[in-house]
Structures are given as C-alpha cells and as structure tokens.
Amino acid sequence: MLGRWFVDFWKGTVVVTMRGDRVPELLNAATGQGIPIWEISRLKNGDYRMMINRHDIHRLRPLMRRSQIKLRLGRKIGVPFLLWRAWRRKFFLAGALTFLVSLYMLSSVIWSVEVEGAEKRLSPESVEQAAAEIGIKKWAWIGHLPDTDELQSKLQDKLPQITFAGVQIQGTKVKIQVVEKVEGVTPQPTAPQHIVATKKGTVRDYAVHRGKITVARGELVQPGQVLISGTLAEGKSSVHATGEVWAAVYYPSKVVMPLTTTRKELTGETVEKHFLTFWGKPIQIWGYGKIPYAEFEEEAEDKVLKIRDFVFPIQYRHTVYREVEIEKMTWTEEQATEQAKELAKADALSKAGQDAKVEEQILLRSQTKDGKLEVEIVNRVLENISKPVPFTPGPPADPDPNATKPAP
Amino acid sequence: MRASWRQRVKKMAADMLDVPKDSILDVPRITLIGGLQLYVENYRGVMEFRDDLLRLALSQGELHVYGKSLVVKSIFPAEVVIEGNISGIKYLE
Lengths: 408, 93
What we know:
The structure holds two protein chains of two kinds. Chain A is an alpha+beta fold. Chain A is built from eight helices and 24 strands. Chain A is elongated and about 135 Å long. In chain B, about 20% of the residues lie in helices and about 50% in strands. Chain B contains two helices and six strands. In chain B, a hairpin with a 4-residue loop joins strand 4 (about 55) and strand 5 (about 60-75). The two termini of chain B are about 20 Å apart. Strand 2 (about 35-40) of chain A pairs antiparallel with strand 5 (about 60-75) of chain B.
C-alpha cells in the first residue's frame, strides 16, 4: 500500500471532478482499458470525484467526449507538480540554495584567530604571523587544515620561544594558546667596552661595577673622555666596563618673559549654528543671526558619513561660538623672574634627561626691555653622563693567550 | 441453452470436487469486512454509483450495495473495493 502510494506520488496524481450522467459507464470503460482509478466518491451536488494518475488524463479524454462528461482538475499531488512549482519559483529556490551554500562556505572558513598567553617574550602579532605561515589565517578553509596535533607541533617549531602551543578550533574561531619559555638568566655581556662622558661636566660622584675609574671627583671631563676604562692590567685584559658617573653640567638658558599678558576666559555664553556642507561649502540651516559677542571662540564639529573609504560629500556641521573675555595681566619683575626660572629649569631638564636634578640656578643677567624681561640663567644640573662605548682591545704588550679575553 | 448446459456441468464438477464455486463458475465472490469494506470479485461493471447505493452488474443479475458515504476505493477489471458505512447488500439474480 505504501509502495503504491510512493509510486503514485512519484508519477503524480490528480484529483479530478467529473460531471455527467454517464460516469459509471466511463468508469467501466476506463477500467477495461486498464486505467487505474481510485478513491471514487460522490459529491453532494452529484459530481464524481476520483483520483487518477497524471499521465492517464489524456487517455480519459476520448472516453469523456463519447459520454459527454465534463472534467475538472483539482488538487495535484506528486513529484512532477512539485518540480513544476519549483521551476516557477526558480529564483526563490536559487536564492535559498545560494543562502545555504554561502552559509556552509562561510561557516567552513576561519573568521578569527585568537592568541592567548603571548605576553612577555612574544607579541600576539608574531604568534599570529607564525600561525598564518602554517595556514591558520583568516579566510582559510578549516577543512584543509591538518590535525590540531600537527598544527601544534608546527607552531612550536616556528616559535622557539614557546614551550607549548595549543590549537583549538571552535567553530569559525581558532584559539591559539601558547606558553612562553621562562626567561633564563641572560649571560653577562662580555664585549669589551669603556664608559665615556657624553657631556662636559665636573665629576661629582661615580659608581663602578666593573672596570677601572680613570677620573677623580671634581675633575672636569670633556665629552668622549673615558671615565671607566675596560682595559685592565695595562692592556693585558679587557672587560665590559659598567658603572655610572654623575657630573655637574651647566646649561645656560635665555628666557624672554613679557610682563603683560592677556588671558582668555570663557564666560559660558554660547551661540549655536547648524550647517549642511556640500563638498565643503557650508550652507546654514539653523541659528541665523549675528554673533552677539565682541570676542569669541569657534568650535565646529562635522558629522561625517563614511562608508569604508567613501566619504559622503554632504555633511552636517554644528558650530558653537563661545564668548570669551580677554583679561590683561601684569607681572612684577620678581614674578616674571620666578616664571623664567621655572621655564629655564624645564628647558635644562629636557636636555639633561629624566633622572637629572637641577642643583642650582644662577641668574646671570636680568633686563627689562620693551615691557619684556630678558633673563639669562645658568642651570647646574647633576646628571649621569656615562655612555658605554665598545672597543677592540689592541694587541697585548705581552703575548699571553690567557690574559686577553677574545671578543665573542 | 448450450451455456446453461455448460453451467450445469461446471456446477456438478464443483459439487463433486468440493472446491469453492467461484473458481469454476462464473459467479462473483463478495467479501464483506465488517460494515466497512466490501470486495467484489468477478463483477461486470458499475451500473450506478450514488452516495448511498452502488449497483454493480454481475454475470447474472445485479448486486446492490446500500450504505452511507460509499467510496470506491479502487476499481479493476475483475475486482472492485468499496468502503463506507455499508448497511446492506442485495443480490439479484
């Protein structure tokens, strides 16, 4: 029975309604010709309803003509009709198919690579790059990736700084977990070097870790002069000299301070205007009228519609005009001098470096001219003037192979 | 006359051999399953089909099937299957 139903469904079945007096006659004739008819019933209005196969309709036609029967096709069931309906909606179906295919394809590529654990010795970017080299990158087919075990060992080969690499594929996201090798003790550098002065200054203090100090406290040194020598025992051995030498360095600064200054102050009063800009040309759309302030500051903000690289040429501009009051200030000479000293200090420190300290500020000259105070100040700054300079040890006076450490 | 003689011979043979008569005689075999399904084998055609009455032609006579909401479930040259609320059948020689 079910098999029959499947065959009928495959071939296509039609529910037909027949009207006429001689339907039983037709049924007999059709049966005699071997046309299968089933589910024949009588309707309330006297019509006959039955089911026949799709391809038997044309065989019925001559019989119907003979017995003057009108036939109406009703519901159509079966694969041929489904196909026909599908063909009528082919674009809809194509869309559905495209959707499914694209969904499948998009879900089978890598969308993101996430790196965890790369903090100290490795940057996440370098891990990502290494991963990209073995095929883990955006838009790569997940199906083409080898086994995660293989990926992990490959990643470990690529990155010698890690002890473990874990690769996990979670849907369209690849999670890479790395464990960095614990940093060992870095070997002491052994390359021979001197510590030399970077600036001219008076040596104040020093701390030698390795090497031999060649200057005394209070000595004036020139830039490039060796402070801590890496050459020991009259050139027989060389070391990697390290240490710090602190010296007083003088920085002269010349500062010009105006005695009267103006200061702008916002009053809090604002006026707003709204514009639309077409290719940069503003056309006002709201907030007409003159700006009622003598002095004001203007602040314009453009709302830009941007789609990737395309900037929409019509933009909205909101401009705020803030009222300002200009205040005149006059400084006394003393105040101005203080101010100038501060400036000179900042100037000196910017040249000397972060760990420097201004010890003293000596006012050399101070002069008021055209309402401006001209000051010359010398800053005495205590700073670290040491700088390592590598050198190649010359041939030792005594050719003793054990005495000189060859440079690695 | 000749046919009836042949009929008689067949009937006699069926009697003597004790086999179902429909296999030898040209008579219908009617199977009623409850009041729901009726199988009529060896019929000759549909004479009338109504919601409450189905008249089938037989080799000799007619078969009337009474009932409510009668449906011809399937129809073949030698067999017809009727479903519905069958309330009675009448065999007319």
